[in-house]
Specification:
alpha/beta, 7-stranded mixed beta sheet, 42% helix, binds 6-O-phosphono-beta-D-fructofuranose, metal-binding, cytoplasm, transferase
Amino acid sequence: VRRIGVMTSGGDSPGMNAAIRAVVRTCAYYHTDCVGYYRGFQGMISGDSVNMNARSVRNIVNQGGTILQSARSKEFLTKEGRAKAAQNLRDAKVDAMILIGGDGTFRGGQVFSEEHDIPVIGVPGTIDNDIYGTHYTIGYDTALNTVVEAIDKIRDTASSHNRLFFVEVMGRDAGFIALNSGIGAGAEEILIPEEDLGLERLLDSLERSRRAGKTSSIVVVSEGDKIGKNVFELAEYVKQNLPYYDARVTVLGHIQRGGKPTCFDRVLASRLSVKAVELLLDGEKDLMVGMMNNEMQSCSLDQASKGKHKINKDLLRISEILST
Ligand code: F6P
């Protein structure tokens, strides 16, 4: 492998820049050329790229977003789109790719590699933390801290007005952000897709906490929660059944994807990305790098895109105990 391409794809996440920096600098360290592709698979299809050297990535380790920009490419889902991308890489003499993104990125990368025999290595970057083969994904820790900081602020106004707040957080079909930020921010209840709490139990619990003397409460709701109502309907339902609650809704939205990466995310991104380049230089392909129990590991891209990263349900029990 003489020339490595790198791109970021799917929803951006804080720490992607630290990952790009580490890929580019590791290539420079091993005297290997590095090419950045803009807007993920879309830039590979249109040949929108930039030659990168160690100095191209100065002053970005601390920046949110991604200097290579990101996209969810529809064209790459087609055989023709992937063939165009492969041709562009061959023309540019790029003989392997590092893909920084989530499971959709890895699925696309695996099909691409099988069809065109171009080795790829995945680096998990998503705030959702829902990737098999790694205990942490790049951006998750920063997103958690953003959420906790936001809920702390909501708590101030909730307690001043004796209100109940439903705070919706991201995570797609996974409850990692909700569960961990909920515990960190001291939420009364945490609703996640992996566990159906049920409406009755939610009402019981809110009623119990009222009786226990709580005057304000925060319920963290994962956007993928399966309770059968969206967060606004849920707040309405609670107001109707427990009229003494003055309920409000806050949807945190895309602020969860922005901001300076935490030190944890910067170190994680750096470790994963150095490993990704080294795997390619060792002749490996179609793997995703991950961190399990603080050790760098790898699994097949196939496992990474199909497997499920299990949530620690014991955290629900912890939350229940602590909201007594
Ligand atoms: O996968 C990251 C994520 O932020 C999810 O948590 C969320 O469901 C989704 O992306 C939002 O996507 P978009 O930015 O395209 O609206």
